[in-house]
């Protein structure tokens, strides 16, 4: 054989070998999709309790904030495609105009929009302020404590964003912590791996590519658990889509014509991966006020609905004389029990003051007797799903405070 032929042959073999892992990853996504479809057929639809559950997303940017190009139409269409009830916008402020006043607000296309801001304070902390206003542009002039206190007086809901960078845990005013951020999680992606994953899997499994990089936000959960333990106050946990519609990879020729493109976070897809499920009393209407109050009260949970619609999940407490929901406080009695109801058979891990205490698997209704005061929350897993999805949380509840 001629020398050049040998070289070509060796190169072809190397290319072939290099692609094997990606072909296997595509096969794993096919297996995951089959497992998700199988689970869907086992859903338990009878849902206990006196709530109506509303699905929505928090932490969305449009073109107004500078580094996104997303339009209002795209955001509304993305919410409608996912049957969302609400979208909480979090625009970056601009120096010469009020982005909270200009963004989506009220009902559009049947979806409730809240006009929030994402601000950076003089302490270099980031807060989501809901709703926002013209004060957002001046946040950089105040410490986190000062700014959060001012917004609190106006009745805004304030969430710590990027908790891994937050320094002012002793500040007053904030109501919760964004313990999961899709954008932050997606920055773990290795571009080379994503390029080949994209070639192999993007056309067939664009949503499930998320499963290749999704990871339990362990560091943020720890920071939240510590803030709860230290502060003696209630703090809601939320997930942020941090949707910009600009995470991805594209190859363009010199004329700007797209040769190859993977967009990991068009709004429609981002809104499908992770959502907030908010519980309102049956007689209550969904409005900006009732939504923000339910979030502040922790009457909500985080669900990675891509792996299975978590609608119907309940986490409640009963002490013999009163019944309470996640987010609430309850008095310890001799017969206090926590109850977990999941729409799919799952593995439920109970945490007390941030530490895994015990777990139960299998049933859709699980009870944990409680004999000590503490802050209790649960994480729900679907071990029926192949790895890595089955080892990551499907649902993260808000706590019940047994006092
Ligand atoms: Zn953001």
Task: Write a brief structural summary.
The protein is an alpha+beta fold and 403 residues long. 27% of the residues lie in helices and 29% in strands.
What does this structure look like?
This protein is α+β, with helices and mostly antiparallel strands and 403 residues long. It has a domain at 51-308: TIM Barrel, CATH 3.20.20.140. The protein is built from nine helices and 22 strands. It has helices spanning 3-40, 72-81, 99-102, 144-153, 182-186, 191-202, 218-231, 267-273, 288-296, and strands at 51-60, 86-91, 106-108, 111-120, 126-130, 157-161, 176-181, 236-240, 248-252, 258-263, 275-281, 300-303, 314-318, 323-325, 329-330, 337-341, 347-352, 355-361, 365-369, 374-381, 395-396, 400-402. The strands form three sheets. It has a 16-stranded mixed sheet that branches. Strands 14-13-16-19 form a four-stranded antiparallel sheet, with no helix packed on it. The protein has a two-stranded antiparallel sheet with strand order 9-10. Strand 3 and strand 4 form a beta hairpin. It is globular and about 85 Å long.
Named CATH topology of the domain at 51-308: TIM Barrel
Q: Cofactors and ligands present?
A: zinc ion
Q: Decide which structural class fits the backbone.
A: alpha+beta
Query: Could you give the distance between the termini?
Result: 81 Å
Principal-axes shape call: globular
CATH architecture of the domain at 51-308: Alpha-Beta Barrel
Unreliable segments (pLDDT under 50, ≥5 consecutive)? Answer: none
Strand residue percentage: 25-35%
Number of helices: 9
Radius of gyration, in Å, reads 23 Å
């Amino acid at each position: 054989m001629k020398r050049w032929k040998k070289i070509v042959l060796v190169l072809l073999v190397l290319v072939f070998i290099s692609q094997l892992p990606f072909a296997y990853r595509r096969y794993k996504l096919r297996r995951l999709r089959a497992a998700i479809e199988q689970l869907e057929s086992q859903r338990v639809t009878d849902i206990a309790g006196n709530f109506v559950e509303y699905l929505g997303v928090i932490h969305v940017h449009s073109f107004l904030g500078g580094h996104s190009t997303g339009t209002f139409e795209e955001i509304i269409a993305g919410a409608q495609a996912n049957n969302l009830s609400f979208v909480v916008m979090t625009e970056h402020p601009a120096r010469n105009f009020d982005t909270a006043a200009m963004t989506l607000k009220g009902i559009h296309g049947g979806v409730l929009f809240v006009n929030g801001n994402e601000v950076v304070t003089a302490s270099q902390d980031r807060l989501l302020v809901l709703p926002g206003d013209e004060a957002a542009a001046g946040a950089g002039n105040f410490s986190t404590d000062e700014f959060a206190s001012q917004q609190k007086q106006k009745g805004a809901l304030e969430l710590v964003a990027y908790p891994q960078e937050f320094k002012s845990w002793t500040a007053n005013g904030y109501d919760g912590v964004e313990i999961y951020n899709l954008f932050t999680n997606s920055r773990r992606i290795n571009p080379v791996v994503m390029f080949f994953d994209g070639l192999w899997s993007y056309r067939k499994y664009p949503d499930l590519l998320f499963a290749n990089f999704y990871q339990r936000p362990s560091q943020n959960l720890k920071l939240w658990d510590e803030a709860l333990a230290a502060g003696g106050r209630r703090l809601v946990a939320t997930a942020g889509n941090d949707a910009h519609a600009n995470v991805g990879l594209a190859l363009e020729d010199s004329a700007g014509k797209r040769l190859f493109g993977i967009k990991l976070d068009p709004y429609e897809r981002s809104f499908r991966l992770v959502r907030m499920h908010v519980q309102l009393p049956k007689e209550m209407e969904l409005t900006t006020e009732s939504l923000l109050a339910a979030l502040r009260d922790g009457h909500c949970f985080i669900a990675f609905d891509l792996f299975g619609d978590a609608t119907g999940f309940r986490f409640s407490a009963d002490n013999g004389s009163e019944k309470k929901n996640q987010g609430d406080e309850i008095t310890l009695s001799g017969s206090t029990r926590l109850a977990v109801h999941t729409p799919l058979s799952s593995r439920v891990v109970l945490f007390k003051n941030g530490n895994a205490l015990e777990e139960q698997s299998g049933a859709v209704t699980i009870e944990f007797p409680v004999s000590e005061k503490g802050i209790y929350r649960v994480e729900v897993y679907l071990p029926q799903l192949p790895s890595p999805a089955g080892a990551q949380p499907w649902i993260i509840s808000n706590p019940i405070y047994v006092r």
